[in-house]
Write a structure and sequence with these properties.
By secondary structure, this protein is mainly alpha-helical. The protein contains 18 helices and 5 strands. The strands form 2 sheets. The chain has a 3-stranded parallel sheet. A two-stranded parallel ribbon has the order 4-5. α14 (327-340) packs parallel to α16. Bound molecules: tryptophanyl-5'AMP.
């Protein structure tokens, strides 16, 4: 194995890879591997994939499918260690030890967790509402009693959100009471309808949060373990994983200061396209959770054509890179540029005076061509699942040697052995 800095990254086996996964991560894995500068570890993050909904009967297929994606895209078991996370128990052991030094407050801040578990933007939204509530005292004396109640409610809201921490269970009970109060009052005070609606939404988010599984919360700690167990200095990932990497660095600092220098603080490596946007909504990132927004890398040329044809565009007709005013066209241009290797200014020049449909047709052709070799290689690989399994097993064996050595060092440091 060649020398050089260690680099680690993983992908969840949850179905097909989209072009965001490819341009933000997989394509870069291959380039970094072929640069010869790093010792590369790429893995199937199967344990992470259990935090979403899944069918156990499909899991093996998904693992092999992702292995085929890796190999067909150009990852080479002779150059990189390609392995399956769950085959290396040391990842989970290290996660447990890291759990004991990771503050819940750090995990509660994770955007991905908030998005998936509810309460995402709600706290901010409520804070804004509570700052802007301003109920005037009514003219008629008979409404004064109501006014007093509203004032109490207003005080409560302001107090709740000035704390800047998440409401407790007692707050939840109080919010219930307030909601009932508002139901009776909102016809008198129009502006309170908004509060009533928002309170209701917050309660829904609470219910969602309370049903959220702990694995989703702990997800970034397992990710930290995946990385630092190999002494990785670099982690190639898309934008959505940067916060998790920041947490990894925090956990490393905590561990090192408590038990002595043991781990390296890893850094992200990003591509020019760390955040490919959805074809259906260019304000949102392309995500497997919205398959209709995705261009999958093993889509057929017809599917590619249809999807790109249906992709939303911006107003106007000029093909110009302008993320603020033309987010949809800018996204298509970014994809075009990343696959063709042409810089965006050159593309703007080429498409100048042409309309959106020309760009869409050309892009569809480019994507279909680009992945044609990939599709062939992948379907050949899938015909031989035993070979895929063997490749994973041999990679997992190599990875476990390193991981087992590190977990021993960690156990010694914390006094377990
Ligand atoms: P996953 O499987 O969700 O995504 C795999 C990689 O694709 C990137 N990505 C994107 N890049 C650009 N634009 C997009 N729209 C887009 N969507 C996804 C992701 O950033 C990621 O790099 N938690 C990880 C898996 C993981 C991991 C790790 C990664 C587990 N342990 C340790 C690095 C190191 C994940 O869910 O990736």
């Amino acid at each position: 194995m060649k020398k050089g800095d260690i680099l680690v990254s993983g992908v969840q086996p949850t179905g097909k890879l989209h072009i965001g996964n490819y341009l933000g991560a997989l394509k870069n894995f291959v380039d970094l591997q072929n640069s010869g500068k790093y010792q590369c570890y790429f893995f199937i993050a199967d344990l992470h994939s259990l935090t979403g909904e899944f069918n156990p009967k499909e899991k093996q297929k998904q693992i092999l499918n992702l292995t085929a994606d890796f190999l067909a895209a150009g990852l080479d078991p002779k150059k990189s260690v390609i392995f399956q996370q769950s085959q290396i128990p040391a990842h989970s052991e290290l996660m447990w030890i890291l759990n004991t030094i990771t503050p819940m407050g750090e995990l509660e801040r994770m955007t991905q967790f908030k998005e998936k578990a509810g309460m995402g933007d709600y706290l901010l939204y409520f804070k804004q509402l509570s700052e802007n509530i301003n109920v005037e005292r009514p003219e008629e004396e008979k409404a004064w009693e109501e006014y007093e109640k509203i004032k109490n409610f207003e005080k409560y809201y302001k107090e709740l959100f000035s704390r800047e921490i998440e409401p407790t269970e007692k707050d939840l009970v109080d919010l219930h009471k307030i909601l009932n109060l508002l139901k009776n009052l909102s016809s008198t005070y129009k502006q309170l309808r908004e509060f009533s609606r928002a309170t209701n939404n917050l309660l829904d988010e609470y219910v969602k949060r309370s049903k959220t599984k702990f694995g989703l919360f702990d997800y970034p700690v397992l990710m930290a373990a995946d990385i630092i167990i190999y002494n990785a200095r670099f982690v190639p990932v898309g934008d959505d994983q940067l916060q998790h990497l920041e947490l990894t660095r925090t956990v490393v600092r905590k561990f090192n200061s408590k038990f002595g220098k043991t781990f390296i603080e890893p850094k992200a490596i990003q591509t020019e396209t760390p955040r490919v946007m959805s074809l259906a909504n260019p304000e949102k990132k392309m995500s497997k959770s919205q398959p209709e927004s995705c261009l999958f890398i093993d889509d057929s040329p017809e599917e590619i054509k249809n999807k790109i044809k249906r992709a939303v565009t911006d107003s106007g007709s000029e093909i110009k890179y302008d993320k603020k005013n033309k987010p949809a066209i800018s996204n298509l241009l970014e994809i075009y540029s990343a696959l063709s290797g042409d810089v965006i200014v050159k593309l703007e020049d080429e498409f100048s005076g042409k309309n959106y449909s020309v760009l869409k047709n050309d892009l569809a052709e480019l994507v279909a061509d680009y992945f044609s070799d990939f599709r062939k290689k992948k379907s050949a690989l899938l015909k031989n699942p035993v070979k895929l399994r063997l490749a994973l097993e041999s990679g997992s064996e190599k990875a476990s040697k390193i991981a087992n050595k590190k977990i021993l060092e960690v156990k010694k440091k914390v006094g377990l052995i």
